Amino acid sequence: MADALLRAARADADAVLAKAVREAEALVAAAEAEAAAIVERAGSQGRADGAAAAKVRRTAARRAARGLELAAEAEAYADLRARVREEVRRATADRSAQARLRRRAHELLGPRASTARGPYGGLTAATPGRRVDLTPDTLSDRALERFGAEAEALWMP
After folding, report:
1. Which residue, of 13, 95, 108, 117, has the fewest CB within 10 Å?
2. DSSP string of the chain, one letter each residue
3. Count of Cβ atoms closer than 10 Å to residue 2 Cβ
4. What b/e sequence results for 46-76 when a residue is b if at least 16 CB atoms lie within 10 Å of its CB, and e otherwise?
5. What region does 117 belong to: left with phi over 0, alpha with psi -120 to 50, or beta?
6. Are the C-beta atoms of 123 and 98 separated by less than 8 Å?
7. Cα dihedral 114→127→88→77 (10° resolution)
């Protein structure tokens, strides 16, 4: 079930990230086109003034394009995170998933660990001085953290 969930999350992530990459590329292309237009206008104002102005404007356009690209990446990651959380919430909602999570909590903390259902499913478990969080949001976040830089590669050209 976890493999199917991971495949579904990856498929959703691929679609979201592909869209974000297309949007980021379009924004970068538009910014580069604007920078080229600025350079052309600056050249007609005179060589010295034009060269200095063009450099400043290209830098500003690159910064703006990079800002748009970063915003698109952040949006893609936020969407991926939300989709993964929703899928994990669904996957941990039934009784068999709850039983597996309870067994895992007892494996980690021992048979005397007390467990409580999480607000969106899953559960938390505790013993004196130790706590385990097996809620869907925490499990999702940990899974995405394990991808680390690999997750960023999903939307990089």
Report:
1. 95
2. -HHHHHHHHHHHHHHHHHHHHHHHHHHHHHHHHHHHHHHHHHHHT-HHHHHHHHHHHHHHHHHHHHHHHHHHHHHHHHHHHHHHHHHHHHHTSSHHHHHHHHHHHHHHH-TT-EEEE-BTBSEEEEETTEEEEE-HHHHHHHHHHHHTHHHHHTT--
3. 12
4. eeeebeebbeebbeebeebbeebbeebbebb
5. beta
6. yes
7. 150
- Per residue in 1-25, pLDDT (tens digit) is 656 655 666 676 666 666 666 766 7
The per-residue pLDDT for 9 is 62
The whole-angstrom separation of Cα 154 and Cα 19 is 11
How much is the pTM? 0.56
Amino acid present at 14: D
Q: What's residue 96's pLDDT? A: 92
Q: CB 105: neighbour CB atoms within 10 A?
A: 24
